[in-house]
Amino acid sequence: NEWYEDAGVSGAVKALERPGFAALVAYVRKGDTLVVSAVDRLGRDTLDVLSTVEALQSKGVSIISKREGFDLSTPMGKAMLTMLAAVAELERSNIKARQMAGIERAKSEGRALGRTKTILDAEVAAWRREHTASIAQTAEHFGISPASVKRACSIKHALEVIQVV
């Protein structure tokens, strides 16, 4: 018995592009049975789920969904799979739509999006120039990511700082 998971990877990512699932597909052999906790764990895109199941079944692998309680190799199981995969895709689309509506509403209300800055970009850029430090050294000094240092030291930010001063 082997255990595979893709912790922290969205179900919107195609199954074979997820590291854990790709390893599982490479591991399974004819006669194996793949047990999934639920059909939506296979993915959130109907066509991807159906093609993934077809690829596994063509290798001689049986698939059983614990939550739904059916064997995907039977005609009834295939019909249920198609329906549930479509529902999972619809759910994903609805989540994205609600998320975008929330972001738009927040923007229209003038609310700031994202995390509040704890360090001023000008401070980061000035410290880096003063100490002729690398991006990595600056990131370590301020406890921020290298991407944040690059953003703080970009030409756009430098021009904004000059205009303010």
UniProtKB/TrEMBL annotation:
| The UniProt record lists the keyword DNA-binding | yes
Which SUPFAM superfamilies does this chain map to? Resolvase-like (SSF53041)
Query: What are the BP-aspect GO terms?
Result: DNA integration
Q: Which PROSITE patterns match?
A: RECOMBINASES_2 (PS00398), RECOMBINASES_3 (PS51736)
InterPro entries in the record, alphabetically? Recombinase_CS, Resolv_N, Resolvase-like_N_sf, SSR_resolvase
Q: Which UniProt keywords apply?
A: DNA integration, DNA recombination, DNA-binding
Q: The Resolvase/invertase-type recombinase catalytic domain covers which part of the protein?
A: 1-110
User: One Pfam family of this protein, by short name?
Assistant: Resolvase
In terms of CDD domains, this protein maps to:
SR_ResInv (cd03768)
Can you name one GO molecular function term for this protein? Answer: DNA binding
Q: Which PANTHER family match?
A: DNA-INVERTASE FROM LAMBDOID PROPHAGE (PTHR30461), SERINE RECOMBINASE PINE-RELATED (PTHR30461:SF2)
Its protein name is Resolvase/invertase-type recombinase catalytic domain-containing protein
